[in-house]
């Protein structure tokens, strides 16, 4: 336990370094963008004088390093800044969307992770069999369908034709369990299919890899049943790669779900970040990037701890 | 050989027509500026009810709640009329606010908060306000509110979208308990029309914070606003038009993806949808539950040929490209017939000043070849910039590329993303696309996009004759003379300006069949964005 | 030839499909009966078997010709991008695994930083900055998936590096290069091949996602994902213009993965002596 505790402390320190790298990388990339918030704000009707004045007001005339330092200083004192596009605090904009995103991510993870694990382990146990082949083709074809096509097919069937579910994911203020179910059914289903297919494939590959190791063969030769060999020997050693794949897949649920958010008009943080890019709203863009990075680091931390808990050899090496 | 001779003869004829038009232009200029008659609109309140636009086929029904979707939504959504820049903003602004005037279906303006709007010289305008109008917070409408609302556009800190137009205001002063005077720097007969735009809606005096609240005099009160998510308006029982509005509540959302928007309409999740693609109309009509409404507008996507860059500064190249535009194919294939063929100038056939004697420019590869050769550009490779930001431009560029191959040159297509297009690409390349929203006032349209020193003189066109005509027409009170001037200007643009306008796009909206009371207003989709006060929901 | 013979049926099917699609990718543009950008018909979303083999698209172009023309983007961009991402990711992971903990930590943190930026938004920014072009799409997709490959390779490599035979080799005084290439690489190669197959699929998907956001391959050219996207409004009427490219994408990705699976499957069996 002490090892894990130390690891967490160490990781938090390292995470801060990673966050700093992200902020610098994002700041650098964002500075490649042509145009700025002043131009985007005035759009087609921008005159050079108006743009110049607005630029001054936004502080965009400062050198990039100074702007970066100012923003970082603000962040350290707990102020994520003000959105250039609509003059509201960035923290306020994000917090209202974040809860929505977390809800969508949570429901999806809850369904997709166990589903994918079972699928992957079963496929590995019966590798080469018909079940395995069927699952292989199924997961591959699911992973190969563009998610916008999948989502549109769902909408056409369940909303337009059958009229069972709403085509837009709105949660009314006085929503009950049934309303939540209706609002989330299609977006969650879309994301589950996209994610669990890839998680299942990675799980299968990792378990299969362990099953081919001599120690598992040994156990099997000693007469231990396949399910026991898988659960007792192969799985713990395969946990490292599996949790990594899961962490990667789940981190997708915060920033990568733009398309699902667009199609179901779901107000999440991914579309907020797209807005930030479109409006050249740097404070918001930076804050979203930091948010995604933090979410990812938390997932990775969990993945690493799980790997260490599962594989004693890593405890000393970690 | 014979072919070439024929071509040369055709060219000669074109040249003759051209010089003929020049004489006509001079005539109209000479007569300009002599006659000024009183114009403007002055209508007492009781006439308003009769002349209001709708002829209700059925008795309106009160009550109900609808959800309406436009085609965009972002954190940039605003409650400030001055900052409104996209269709969603326009709808939101017209829901909550009213202007001094409002657009009608005949491409004119009716009085709204202004009871009378008069001028003797088109430069000094007397405005009398309607009495008994209250803001949503209960405050009465006063001339001071109007003065504040109009003059704030001149404050750079407001970052108003209408600042270039507001620059024409010399002075706006209160002249009585319910009256004010607007003095312009120069006469402009179109002021009543220009003030009907959503940017000039009236806010309460002294309002500076628009982040979460909107205090207007419009048909709906703001109930909820969340930028990039939704706007909810509830019925304003004290609306100044008696008996209106009809609905209890309107929820406004933006669905950027067209196919999602249509699906939402067909599944009954929204009751009205802005901007339906021509290809989706069949599906909407077939559904049985929804229908479409078409609005003929003067919205256009044009090919800009910069006059300050090579090779687009060559007049023969410009003409060659204009002959390469396959207008019929664009109208048919790109817009499924939901478009009107245009003649390389920005005035739509439905406009009262449309020059219908100007011959329609055909799709003519032989003439294009002739001009291309004359320009010495046969075989040239020219890049053209297109973007989804300018509707239809990407497909138009692809068609132009095909015509170019036939005419003996190559257009290389550069598609660039919609975001940042207006600031980084528009008017910045020798050959690129623009997209211009309907403007009722030709003066506004020409002053913004075609005058030599216009802020968005798209092609960098410099034509002193055009500028003179424009200035003369602005103060011209004689209708016939004014019309002749606008005719001449259209001809000049069509013949000489570095712009090719293939078609005007019709606006198509979708709506639930239970939605009643809607009719087209050509300034934009969803009844010029002002459907909120007109529609009701039938049982 | 031996490899092909020893393959299971699914592998042979995969190989056949891969050969078919690569053939289309290389020769498709020459085989197309019409120009991919020519409007040939007035009617849009025509069904299969009319005047045009696979019907017409949303503005009346020949779907068959457009697929023949567009396949090369869907084959070559993802193939190159996935190869770049996987090889770079694996190499860096090997280097990281045999280097000291400090180097490993620095590389890992940097990769974490890269990976936490959502790929679609990264692409959005890069394309807004540089304009969409095939080399840029290739670069973006390769960069987007490299850190993911790295993480998986590193997890595998660290696992292997902790195994007894590596420890033995290390105490024997073998060089880092030897450890990485001779001891670790062969043991992580098979899972990385599977990873390559998945990355290939991811790049195909990212490309079609980008086309959804309007950032993909430049028109009038279109990769298969863009074809699906631009014709999506024909889905309700079951237009082949949207269904056929979707099926094409599915068969390409399945074929690549079946082939890779059977290759590593064969290898695994061989290693186990069966």
From TrEMBL, chain A:
<feature type="transmembrane region" description="Helical">
    <location>
        <begin position="102"/>
        <end position="125"/>
    </location>
</feature>
<dbReference type="InterPro" id="IPR045621">
    <property type="entry name" value="BPD_transp_1_N"/>
</dbReference>
<dbReference type="InterPro" id="IPR000515">
    <property type="entry name" value="MetI-like"/>
</dbReference>
<feature type="transmembrane region" description="Helical">
    <location>
        <begin position="12"/>
        <end position="33"/>
    </location>
</feature>
<feature type="transmembrane region" description="Helical">
    <location>
        <begin position="242"/>
        <end position="264"/>
    </location>
</feature>
<keyword id="KW-0812">Transmembrane</keyword>
<keyword id="KW-1133">Transmembrane helix</keyword>
<dbReference type="GO" id="GO:0055085">
    <property type="term" value="P:transmembrane transport"/>
</dbReference>
<dbReference type="InterPro" id="IPR035906">
    <property type="entry name" value="MetI-like_sf"/>
</dbReference>
<dbReference type="GO" id="GO:0005886">
    <property type="term" value="C:plasma membrane"/>
</dbReference>
<feature type="transmembrane region" description="Helical">
    <location>
        <begin position="284"/>
        <end position="310"/>
    </location>
</feature>
<feature type="transmembrane region" description="Helical">
    <location>
        <begin position="180"/>
        <end position="200"/>
    </location>
</feature>
<protein>
    <submittedName>
        <fullName>ABC transporter permease</fullName>
    </submittedName>
</protein>
<dbReference type="Pfam" id="PF00528">
    <property type="entry name" value="BPD_transp_1"/>
</dbReference>
<dbReference type="Pfam" id="PF19300">
    <property type="entry name" value="BPD_transp_1_N"/>
</dbReference>
<comment type="similarity">
    <text>Belongs to the binding-protein-dependent transport system permease family. OppBC subfamily.</text>
</comment>
<keyword id="KW-0813">Transport</keyword>
<keyword id="KW-1003">Cell membrane</keyword>
<keyword id="KW-0472">Membrane</keyword>
<feature type="transmembrane region" description="Helical">
    <location>
        <begin position="137"/>
        <end position="160"/>
    </location>
</feature>
<feature type="domain" description="ABC transmembrane type-1">
    <location>
        <begin position="98"/>
        <end position="303"/>
    </location>
</feature>
